Amino acid sequence: MQAHLDVRHLRKSYGAFTALDDVSFTAAPGEIVALLGPSGCGKTTLLNLIAGFLTPDAGSVIVGGRDIVNMAPHKRDMAMVFQNYALFPHMSVERNVAFGLKMRNVASDEVGKRVQEALDLVQLGNLGKRYPKELSGGQQQRVALARALVVRPSVLLLDEPLSNLDALLRKRMREEMRQILKAANITTVVVTHDQEEALVSADSIVLLASGKVEQSSTPNELYERPSTIFSARFMDVTNFLDGVVIGHEQGNAVIDTAFGKLRAEVDSCTIGTKVTVAVRPENIAKGEEAGENCVTGEVISSSYHGPVRRIEIEANGARLIADIPVKRCLSKVGDRLSVSWPADDTRLLPGQGHAPVDGKNLEDMLQ
Amino acid sequence: MSTLVEKGGLPSATRTPIGLHAGLLLVPAILFYAVLFVWPLIISTWGSFTPTGKLSLQTYTHFFSDGFYRSVLWRSLRISAITTLMTLIIGYPIAVYLSQNWRKGRSVVVFLVIAPMFVSAVVRSYGWIIILGPNGLLSSFTKAIGLPMGHLLYSEAGVIIALTHVFLPFMVIALAGSLQQIDPSLARAAQILGANGFSVFMRVTLPLSLPGISAGSVIVFCLAASGFVTPALVGGAAVPVMPYLVYKEGLLVLNWPFASAVALILLVATALATAIYTFAMRDGASKRSVVR
Question: Rounded to whole angstroms, how far apart are CA atoms A143 and A125?
Answer without folding.
Answer: 10
